Amino acid sequence: MINFLVDVGACVGEFTDSWLRLNPEGAVFCIEAHSENFNTLVQKYENNENVKVMHAAVSLNDEETVKFYLGSTRQNGSLCLDNESQTTIQVESQHGLR
After folding, report:
1. Taking the mean position of all CA atoms in its chain, how far away is CA 20?
2. Distance between CA atoms of 35 and 31, rounded to whole angstroms?
3. CB atoms within 10 A of CB 92
């Protein structure tokens, strides 16, 4: 049985919540680039020691920062320019987990 989830682009934790209902003893590592979503995740899981949250984006790009394109809502940001994004932010590179 799967015991560990890495939720890349965790948004506000909807998939994490669904997975935890099926795996209540499982561990989750949420990665989210959007600051508001990240703050929501931190507050949501602050009392759940099985869930860790990281403010970052995952990319194959090995530069120190990558562009994250904010969408029209908090749920549709992307590292891809070819979307309906309206605002761009810089996300610092995280080499290794802390």
Report:
1. 16
2. 11
3. 10
- With 0-12 / 13-18 / 19 or more C-beta atoms within 10 angstroms meaning exposed / middle / buried, residue 57 is buried
91/49 Cα distance (integer angstroms): 26
Burial of 10 by CB count in 10 Å (0-12 exposed, 13-18 middle, 19+ buried)? Answer: buried
**3: which residues sit within 8 A by CB, 6+ positions away?**
23, 25, 26, 27
pLDDT tens readout for residues 37-88: 999 999 999 999 999 999 988 887 777 777 777 777 677 777 666 665 555 5
Token look-up 């997975």 returns 19
